[in-house]
Amino acid sequence: MKQRRDAKRGADAAMIEGVADAADAAWPCRRLVRCFVSALTMTMAVATPMTTPVAAAADVSTAGTADGAADDNILLLRQQDHQWHRSLTQGGDFAELNSLLSSAVVSLPSVTVSQNLMTLSANNVACRSFSIGDVRLQSESAGGVHGNAVRVALEVEELDASCSFDYSYSGMLFFSGGGWADVVTADNAASVVLDLSTSSPSHSLSKYTPSRVEVISCVPRASISSMTFHGGIEGFILNALEGMLRRRIAEEMGRKMCQTLRSWSEGGAREILSNFGSTIDGYISQGWGTIDPLWSEKAMAVPARAELLEWNDPEVGNVGRWLRKGLDEGTAYLRSSVPDSSASGGSAGGMDMNANVLLREHALNQERALDVVLSDVPFLGDGGRQQHQAVDDGTLLLWEGTDRLSTSSISLEAVRVRGLDTMRRFDPLDTLGSHTFRSRLSWSRLSFEIDLVISLRPSTVADSVIKNPGEVPPVTEHVTVRFALSDIEAELALLLAIDEALYSDVHLISVLDSAKILPCLLTGVHDLRLSSLSVKVGSVAPPTLEGFVGPGLDRLGGEFAATFARLYMGTMLTAMPGFFRNDVREMAENWVRKAWRDNRADYGECLHFSNAGNSGTDDGMVDLRDLLLPPSEAVAAGASGASPYGDLVSSHLVTLMRDEMLALSDDEDGLPLINSRFVRPFTESLSGVEGALHLTSLEGGYMYEKKDNDAASPTADEAK
Q: What GO molecular function annotations does the UniProt record carry, in alphabetical order (predicted)?
């Protein structure tokens, strides 16, 4: 039995020897979103203490009774720069994570104590069944007047475990023996304090990213609740040496905790600062200077046969005049305000721009959020060099790493943008060049939501510290990262190159069908690009993390977000112009060009029109009943009702005419609306008097005579 026990404990020790640090895993983190979620996973990994042996030793002091009796507080904390605060935790706060830790096995160095020619040694010391009560991450601004540092305290509290070891003893006159012992250790803790600062004391965190890590202190607390010996040991040896052995084992436990915590926190912090720093600094450098908004126009290749419409040329042809008129009317429509209850929180009487209303009706979901198509987001990869894997559940795998404790992964589930339908400024199409428009937009607030799946599974590598990994359930968390931008002002340049020659053969009747108007118009677009995008952001709200099942991880995620805000909110605000100028512009341009390619008709679809099935048009004559009347009215009038000329006139223009011109007004006169909306403004523009035309006889004809503005208005009979 002893041989089997020795073999088992020897295997445990060999399995632990040289445990790899989780922070050594590859972190392909070159983009802001991936940096944030990777750092979050690294923070979660702190709840796996005592798994990484390193050389640094913790400064601890021991205390025990004079006779070596048991003492539940073997190691005393040195109250240095901070004090311990027991968290108000509840049982099960870290239940999911503890289910993974419970199968880990960690070894400690052998210990030997001696007194009065008696020696007691503990070998093959192994601890298992770990359980964590709380992990806390606290931070505060530091660095004096320049504010170039943040002090971070990372605390692991209420760490319980059970240990075992083989012991041997010897004394004078060849007195010796051995056996094994079980140890229960509870309420252990360790805290490490670090300073994260910029490269120079004069470099404020509002303008520079932190790059330096300094460990200020590490304070452990370890205690042994009970130690039970098996195999027979003389009582006088226990009385003399057990207290010393407890202290030494507790010292090694405290040293191991601080070694691991110092190594992880310092190495992990350097990794996080390096990744975030390079990413944010890259965006800051990309945001400097200006980009010529006409660069796409200047670099555009134009075929010799093309007849590109010049938007800034007043002498345009018929097609150009119609397109320009359409754009002007469309712009006026988008900027006009209409009643909309959603703009006033659901109450009646609210008004909003048509542009916001159309976004809500056609681009946003029922919760007024834009669901971003993940495949269209360029900054999820390393500049397009890395392809992410789509996993079975439809998420996008961002990162995966394996060490001897666990296999960790981060998957992107969804991205949403809220507030796009709250534009307060919309100047969509100001002519900037021959083929380029400038648009100015602004929002009070835009918020972003990123749904992530974070998974921790037992490691299955050959030297894993997890016993029987197949029996340990994985830890899966669905979390949402939220952050918001305020006072956003955007200016973009849109290249819209129209080839008039492509419209020359398009039949008018092809665009009388409302379903074909946009596809046929898009056939004449030679090129469409978002040439530039410049954005000014007033402020960035700190990110929040929500959705952890376990309250412990939820609390830890919130503390990480607060620390992140102290470190990076200033530089993130500075980096926003570069982020929008490059990544967001690229994503928006991809979306615009994809919509153009997917919705344009084949050129031949707009060149000829078939009216087969309408017997009334075989002779080339147009049946006005089918052209002007809705299908049901056309059938009643004896026509086919099949809308052979499309539905633009019959279902849209005629309906618009009836509702906006022929309907009776609410005025006292009860006349059709065409009088107030067309006749009166038109006649006043010609004669100066509403409803009256004054003709002056001239040789060969008549001309309009415009009266003075103070001329008497015509009587009702005259107006008629």
A: lipid binding
Q: Is 199 helix (H, G, I), strand (E, B) or coil?
A: coil
pLDDT in tens, 163-200: 999 999 887 767 788 899 999 999 999 999 999 999 88
Domain segments of the chain: what residues?
Answer: 2-282, 293-604, 663-720
Cα 70 to Cα 120, 229, 244: the distances in Å are 16, 14, 9
| Dist CA 153 CA 513 (whole Å) | 68
> Residue 528 corresponds to which tokens in the numbers above?
């469409």
Q: Which tokens sit at 174?
A: 């060849």
Distance (Å, whole) CA 274 – CA 616: 76
With the CA atoms of 347, 353, 359 and 365 taken in that order, what torsion angle do they form, in degrees rounded to the nearest 10?
-10
Helix (H) or strand (E) holding 565: helix 551-579
* Neighbour count for residue 119 (Cβ, 10 Å): 16
Return d(Cα 425, Cα 442) in angstroms, integer.
Answer: 5
Tell me which of 255 and 472 has the higher pLDDT. 255
State the residue for tokens 């002056």: 696
Q: Which long-range contacts (CB under 8 A, 24 or more apart) does 561-568 make?
A: 562/139, 563/137, 563/139, 563/150, 563/152, 564/36, 564/39, 566/139, 566/140, 566/141, 566/150, 566/205, 567/150, 567/196, 567/205, 567/209, 567/210, 567/276, 568/205, 568/209, 568/276, 568/280
pLDDT in tens, 281-303: 888 887 666 788 999 999 999 98
Q: Is 173 left (phi over 0), alpha (psi -120 to 50) or beta?
A: left
**Residue 191, beta-bridge partner list:** 155, 219
Residues in the chain: 720
- HSE toward the beta carbon, residue 241, CA cutoff 13 A: 24
Tally the C-alpha atoms within 13 A of residue 66's C-alpha that lie toward its C-beta.
0
SS3 of 67-116: the string is CCCCCCCCEECCCCCCCCCCCCCCCCCCHHHHHHHCCEEEEECCEEEEEC
Q: How far apart are CA 450 and CA 488, in angstroms?
A: 20
Backbone dihedral angles phi then psi of residue 218, each to the nearest 5 degrees = -140, 125
Q: CB-based burial of residue 298 (10 Å sphere; 0-12 exposed, 13-18 middle, 19+ buried)?
A: exposed
Q: What is the DSSP secondary-structure string of 228-274?
A: EEES---HHHHHHHHHHHHHHHHHHHHHHHHHHHHHHHHHHHHHHHH
Q: Give me the DSSP letters along 605-661.
A: GGT----TT-GGGTTS---HHHHHS-HHHHHHTTS--S-TT-SIIIIIIHHHHIIII
The 10s digit of each residue's pLDDT in 480-513 is: 999 999 999 999 999 999 988 887 777 777 777 7
Distance CA 215, CA 261 (A): 11
H/E/C letters for each residue in 416-457? Answer: EEECCCCEEEEEEEEECCCCEEEEEEEEEEEEEEEEEEEEEE
Give the integer Cα–Cα distance in Å for 165 and 12: 11
**Total Cβ atoms within 10 A of residue 443:** 18
**What are the pLDDT digits (tens) for 551-578?**
888 888 888 888 988 999 889 888 888 8
Q: How far is CA 326 from the centre of its chain?
A: 37
Please, what is the Cα angle at 662 between 656 and 667, to 5 degrees?
120
Q: Under the phi-then-psi rule, with left for phi > 0, alpha for psi from -120 to 50, and beta for the rest, what region is 327?
A: alpha
Phi, psi of 473 (to 5 degrees): -70, 150
* CATH dotted code for 2-282: 3.15.10.10
Give the number of other Cβ atoms within 10 Å of residue 374's Cβ.
16
Please give the structure tokens belonging to residue 426. Answer: 């919309």
CA distances, 476 to each of 129, 271, 403, 410, 553 (Å): 21, 24, 17, 10, 12
Distance CA(180)–CA(231), nearest Å, equals: 6
3-state secondary structure of 507: coil
